[in-house]
Amino acid sequence: MQKNQHSNNTENCQQELEQSIDSFNACEMHHRNLIDYMRNGYACCRMIIENDHPVDFVHEEVNRGYEHLTGLKNVIGRRITEVLPGINESNPEFIEKHIRVVESGIPDHFEIHLKSLNKWYDISLYCPKKGYSVAMFDDITERKHTEEALQDSERKFRSITEQMSEVVFVSDTLGNVSYVSPAIEKISGYKPQELIGHHFAEFLPEEKISGAVGLWNDAMSSQLTTQALELTFQSKNGKPVYSEIHIQYYHDNGFCGTIGVLHDITERMHHENIRKKYEHKLLESRQFLQNIYDTVNHSIFVVDVLPDGSYRYKGINKMHETLTGISNEEISGKTPEEMLDPEVAATVANYYDTCIRESSSIQYEECLSFKGKKTWWTTVLNPVRDETGHIYRIIGTSTNITERKLVEEKLNKLSVAVQQSPAVVVITDPLGNIEYINPTFTQHTGYTAEEVIGKNPRILQSGLMPKELYKELWQTILSGGVWHGELHNKKKNGELYWEVAVISAIVNDKGVITNFVAVKEDITEKKKLWIDLVISKEKAEESDRLKTAFLANISHEIRTPMNGILGFSELLKDPHLSGEEKAEYIDLIHQSGQRMLALINDLVDISRIEAGEAMMQIEATTVNRLLEDLHAFFKLQAENKGLILSCIKGLPDDESIIETDSSKLTQILTNLLQNALKFTLEGSVDFGYTRTENLLEFYVSDSGIGFPPEMKETIFERFRQADHTLTRNHEGSGLGLSISKAFVEMLGGTIQAHSLPGRGSHFVFTLPYSPPGSLQKPAQSHDRQEHQGLPPGLTILIAEDDEVSTFLLQKSLSGENITIHHARNGREAVELFEHHPEINIVLMDINMPVMNGFDATRAIKKLRPGQPVIAQTAFASKEDRDTAIMAGCDGFITKPINKKELLEVIKELLDR
Fold first, then answer.
1. In a designed cystine with 744, which of 347, 406, 736, 751 is the match (CB 3.0 to 4.6 A)?
2. CA-CA distance, 125 to 104, in Å (whole number)?
3. From the CB of residue 673, how many other CB atoms can be counted at a distance below 10 Å?
4. Rounded to a whole number, what is the distance in angstroms from the first to the last CA of the chain?
């Protein structure tokens, strides 16, 4: 019985053992499957002890994820240092962490970059049993790269925004400022941390808040890509700051709001207000002078001197119209013979002849009949000269003295009228001693009758009038004539004044002089106004003449090369032309195009200078190298004219480095050298510089035609040329010297010119000698290598909306074994780029419809950040270049595009 029971117990135990073994095997298989098929890597390692110290681990068990995530195979039974050679040198902490976990039993979790595998891993490490470690890990390399790229992007963003002079800001959906660049402190006085978290409307004047919030809401609700507005906000000290703001809707990783750029335009607004103020004053001044011209108490007429010596009236003022009854329309464009009786016309023409012959002002009295009415006039003729000294116009001022004549005849009977006359009346005896003055004399001079009666009128003399005038006065009145003139006299209190005086003799029935009478009027203010009027009129006439000459010159300068381009282009259509003729015509077309381009560049430069937009790029400039380049550039041109071109450097190479705008210095010297070579027919052209203390004195001398001494200053004015005539022998817009003078002054220097006609010219300008303190001896520069051709099989995308420019580019690249794709706008360029991954280079026009070149470049760079993009534009300002760089462009070329330059830029980008 007991035996059977024991047998049954044994049998039951055996069954339980088998069941346990089956369960264990099933559990182990489940565990193995779980480990093998999980995405994480799994490695169970046994610690190796040598000399009582742990030194390494042997792989006991790994899963499939281990091989997938590390790329390591057949690692079972192999040490970690064997599987990962050099691990102790590159990542010593890796083995140390395994040892620490096994010895302490405390799990560890860490991220590590295994240099031998060049991967990042997230590792969880624990000790399953004594002497063993288990590592669960995942490959986080891509995440790490993403984080590094994000951090790099954020660093770049902050670096760019913190160095920008403009303010960059970001606001959330409520309008609260979440980021603002440091430039805000310079503009407003607020530090960035004082603004962050505050609503932007807190910094606006009360009356501006409603409009600004409305515009911001529009940008948010409509998710506008671009919106610009001018806004005034308050600085920290309460002063208004005028700004121009560009904002757009912003959305990124769940965050949305607005991002914008703020430009401080306070100074621009200040200058704009000043400009408007001065324009208003100028208009008032012109109206004021015109009113003087029209209301002055003198008749004014203008006579043009024609080339044949005849005369033609240009116009008259309103006073002349009133006094003569003749309108300006009636007399303008008429000759004296057409307006006056033959005898009177001959007399008037004789006066005009006298004025020109004596080349000075003349004065005379005349009796003229207008509309059947006889009148007496005192007339002064003043000649007007052009820049050559030629008299081309006469300005006449006539005073109607008819009434005065009548008064003189009745003077004895009109004592009461004289007493009340507003004019000064003085009567002397035959010896010139004063017998009578009217009250106006006292008011005018400060002398009472008691103080002057019996004295000679010379007590009024200032001593500033020539003695000959008084001699002429006495000769005139003693001979019975009437003297009319201006006197610069002195009042009792010593104050000087001008007066116009009419002095004549009074004779009795026997013809004996019994008295002299003088009628005088204070013209001090009138004289000042008249001088101002003449000066203003001369300036206006000079300005009109210069503008007329400039327009005629520019028309000639534009039409001449256009005539060459169009004319020779038409001749090229002849199928019978020889190769030599075609080459000659093409060269002439190219020369005309270069001349047109030079004119356009001058006009752009003078426009930027006029607008105050010319920018300076100060950099270390090796003056000697710059002069060497100019000498090499102009040497062939000088040799072709048989001229000697010499260059003198005033300093050693290592001392010739200064901080200045290299391009503007080059343009100044280029303009001066071009003029020198243009106006020199034989001899030499010399240029160079010397150092005098803290200045570099540059010079350009030639043995050419020179210019008159009187043009020494005006030659630098805009549109000025030594020869404005239709027979001038030299091309040019007349802007080069004006541009050079402006650039010299921008760079802190001065410019002068010295010349004598036929003996050459000498131009000198100075610049500060400002060597950079930290620069050493300049490295030897190397000329750009000649274009060696492009590698075969290139694919180029041309984004250009102009068909002619596209055709030219295609022809320029047709012989280079290149595949070309053409897009007519920015959006089409982006679509073509997406469908053609083989594209190597993108030529991107900036100004295109639908989507401009900047936006298209940004879109392309998002698709493929390393894609080379070359910007092409007809403009070449620094702002265009900066915008192109910010958009992601790698190169920049300007139209008209030079094939050699284009191929060099493409090759340079491909070689990077």
1. 751
2. 12
3. 23
4. 98
Tokens of 143: 């995440």
Tell me if residue 139 falls in helix, strand or coil. strand
Q: Which amino acid is at 489?
A: N
Give yes or no for residue 698 having a pLDDT over 90.
yes
Contact assessment for residue 360 and residue 381, using Cβ atoms and an 8 Å cutoff: no
pTM of the complete model: 0.34
- Tell me the C-alpha distance between 249 and 219, whole Å: 6
Rg (CA), the chain: 47
Written as one letter, the residue type at 547 is: K
Q: In Å, what is the CA distance from 623 to each residue of 36, 333, 394, 605?
A: 74, 59, 53, 23
Token output for 658: 């200064």
User: What DSSP designation does 855 have?
Assistant: H
Q: Are 154 and 201 in contact (CB under 8 A)?
A: no
CA distance 912 to 291: 71
**808 by DSSP, 3-state: which?**
helix
What backbone torsions phi and psi does residue 236 show, to the nearest 5 degrees? -65, -30
Distance of CA 215 to the CA centre of its chain: 31
Q: Exposure of 58 by Cβ count < 10 A (0-12 exposed, 13-18 middle, 19+ buried)?
A: middle
Residue appearing with tokens 């019985």: 1
CA 871/CA 902 separation, integer angstroms: 11
What's the chain's average pLDDT?
80
d(CA 909, CA 697): 40
Task: Kindly report which listed range (119-128, 241-250, 392-401, 679-688) carries the lowest average pLDDT score.
Answer: 241-250
**Do residues 897 and 812 lie in contact, with contact meaning Cβ atoms separated by under 8 Å?**
yes
Distance CA 603, CA 608 (A): 9
Can you say whether residue 735 is alpha, beta or left, with left for phi > 0 and alpha for psi between -120 and 50 degrees?
Answer: alpha
Count of CB atoms within 10 A of residue 501's CB?
20
Token pair of 455 as six digits: 């004295």
Q: Is the pLDDT of residue 778 over 60?
A: no
User: How far is residue 624's CA from residue 33's CA, in Å, rounded to a whole number?
Assistant: 79
Per the CB < 8 A criterion, the answer to whether 208 and 217 are in contact is: no
CB 101 within 8 A of CB 134: no
132 in Cβ contact with 145 (< 8 Å): no
Query: Is residue 647 predicted with pLDDT exceeding 90?
Result: yes
Residue 112 neighbours by CB under 8 Å, 6+ apart: 91, 93, 94, 120, 121, 123
Task: Answer yes or no: are the C-beta atoms of 477 and 459 closer than 8 Å.
Answer: no
Rounded mean pLDDT, 289-309? 77
Q: Which residues pair with 515 in a beta bridge?
A: 506
Distance CA 687, CA 330 (A): 59
C-alpha 357/C-alpha 491 separation (Å) is: 38
Q: What whole-number distance in Å separates Cα of residue 493 and Cα of residue 479?
A: 34
